[in-house]
């Protein structure tokens, strides 16, 4: 049975607190804007981040993003550039992705792998050209990711590869009206930019240089992630977006979490960690088809490919769950419905679903209790409550794809 590090979350705001003192927190380029909009600021991954805004409840923020456009500050994420001869080979060693067949200006979800096939971090890899990549990794994994990449580069096989990181504003504009909003600020035809692709786009009146815009996000809605390296320009652009208040509102971490849960997306440290492989996290598709015969081609390949070839060897998997009543939270134990004393897994994440009603969550469950439709029991506040293993995503994703 999988062991899981976690504790019961008491409420929406407390869920996002880290142990850092306020004096030690890093402020993003949009910090003052958050304060101006009445944000509740909490420590998160060493940053001072907005969790809610004055006049907006968590549910209102969530539903606004599902129906209009929400602006998220994700500048706490770490942005990387990897380039030079051998860059593709390097990334194919530390990830299971097929980056050679990835078209230029296309991105993919991937993960950094340790030698045992465990997930060091998940990431988005954007290919700009042959041996030229832009990568975004998680804020909470900064130190570990940098140490991991430095160690992997130090092998001597990749001396020609250049790796650098940069701080700057990273904005996520998400929701069904995101495209019509962003189109007001550029002459670039955004309809030609599909989910998973990116380009360098001029924002009229804000910067002389183009900025990196990818059609991506963490909500299941259509949307964009916009990297703006100049702080003043980022603040001015975010302010201009928020002036369109009939369509755009600032959205914090609380809604970001419930939106990604409804979309069935993983959060590092919850649904995945260094003790879980992509297969155990139900991310088989991260392993590129061309990589599935290359036992020595990437870190942990022997174990991961063995799990792919022999599904019965995988003893637990990430699954979705739905329930009524008190919401399950990270760390809650899961038990067999037929044998309530038999512990069969643990909740990785859980939240009330503003879109559907009831609760949605994700769990790491032992086989055979992870089959869709299986009834389970979740221990919440000392009482075992009924839930059902359910298909993800819970809410249909609405990405902009070619027709």
Automatic annotation (TrEMBL):
Domain Aminomethyltransferase C-terminal: 317-395
Residue ranges occupied by any GCVT N-terminal domain in the UniProt entry: 30-289
Its EC number(s): 2.1.2.10
Enzyme class: transferase
Keyword S-adenosyl-L-methionine tagged: no
Keywords, in A-Z order: Aminotransferase, Mitochondrion, Transferase, Transit peptide
A cellular component term, taken from the record's GO annotations: glycine cleavage complex
This protein's record includes keyword ATP-binding: no
Subcellular location: Mitochondrion
GO BP term, example: one-carbon metabolic process
Catalytic activity: N(6)-[(R)-S(8)-aminomethyldihydrolipoyl]-L-lysyl-[protein] + (6S)-5,6,7,8-tetrahydrofolate = N(6)-[(R)-dihydrolipoyl]-L-lysyl-[protein] + (6R)-5,10-methylene-5,6,7,8-tetrahydrofolate + NH4(+)
Domain of life assignment: Eukaryota
Annotated binding of substrate, by residue: 225
Matching InterPro entries: GcvT, GcvT/YgfZ/DmdA, GcvT/YgfZ_C, GcvT_C, GCVT_N, TrmE/GcvT-like
Family assignment from sequence similarity: Belongs to the GcvT family.
PANTHER family in the record: AMINOMETHYLTRANSFERASE, AMINOMETHYLTRANSFERASE, MITOCHONDRIAL
Function: The glycine cleavage system catalyzes the degradation of glycine.
Subunit record text: The glycine cleavage system is composed of four proteins: P, T, L and H.
Protein name, per record: Aminomethyltransferase
Provenance organism: Kuraishia capsulata CBS 1993
């Amino acid at each position: 049975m999988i062991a899981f590090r976690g504790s019961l979350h008491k409420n929406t705001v407390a869920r996002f607190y880290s142990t850092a003192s306020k004096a030690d927190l890093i402020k993003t380029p949009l910090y003052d804007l958050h304060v101006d909009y009445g944000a509740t600021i909490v420590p998160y991954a060493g940053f001072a981040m907005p969790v809610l805004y004055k006049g907006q409840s968590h549910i209102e923020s969530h539903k606004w993003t599902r129906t209009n456009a929400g602006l998220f500050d994700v500048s706490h994420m770490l942005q990387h550039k990897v380039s030079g001869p051998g860059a593709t080979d390097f990334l194919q060693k530390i990830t299971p992705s097929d980056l050679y067949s990835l078209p230029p200006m296309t991105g993919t979800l991937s993960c950094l792998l340790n030698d045992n096939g465990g997930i060091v971090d998940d990431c988005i890899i954007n290919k700009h050209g042959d041996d030229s990549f832009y990568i975004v990794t998680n804020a909470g994994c900064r130190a570990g990711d940098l140490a991991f990449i430095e160690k992997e580069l130090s092998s001597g096989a990749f001396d020609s590869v250049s790796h650098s990181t940069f701080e700057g504003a990273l904005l996520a504009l998400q929701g069904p009206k995101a495209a019509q909003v962003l189109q007001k600020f550029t002459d670039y035809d955004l309809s030609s930019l599909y989910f998973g692709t990116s380009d360098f786009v001029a924002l009229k009146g804000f910067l002389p240089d183009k900025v990196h815009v990818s059609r991506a996000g963490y909500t299941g809605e259509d949307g964009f992630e916009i990297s703006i390296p100049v702080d003043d320009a980022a603040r001015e652009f975010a302010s201009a977006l928020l002036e369109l208040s009939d369509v755009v509102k600032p959205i914090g971490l609380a809604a970001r979490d419930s939106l990604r849960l409804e979309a069935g997306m993983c959060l590092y440290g919850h649904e995945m960690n260094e003790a879980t492989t992509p297969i155990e996290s139900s991310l088989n598709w991260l392993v590129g088809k061309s990589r599935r015969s290359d036992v020595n081609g990437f870190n942990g390949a022997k174990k991961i490919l063995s799990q792919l070839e022999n599904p019965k060897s995988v003893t637990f998997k990430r699954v979705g769950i739905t329930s009524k009543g008190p919401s399950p939270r990270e760390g809650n134990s899961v038990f067999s419905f037929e044998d309530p004393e038999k512990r069969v897994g643990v909740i990785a994440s859980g939240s009330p679903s503003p879109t559907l009603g009831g609760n949605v969550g994700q769990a790491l469950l032992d086989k055979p209790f992870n089959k869709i439709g299986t009834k389970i029991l979740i221990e919440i506040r000392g009482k075992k409550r009924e839930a059902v293993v359910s298909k993800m995503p819970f809410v249909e994703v609405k990405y902009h794809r070619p027709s």
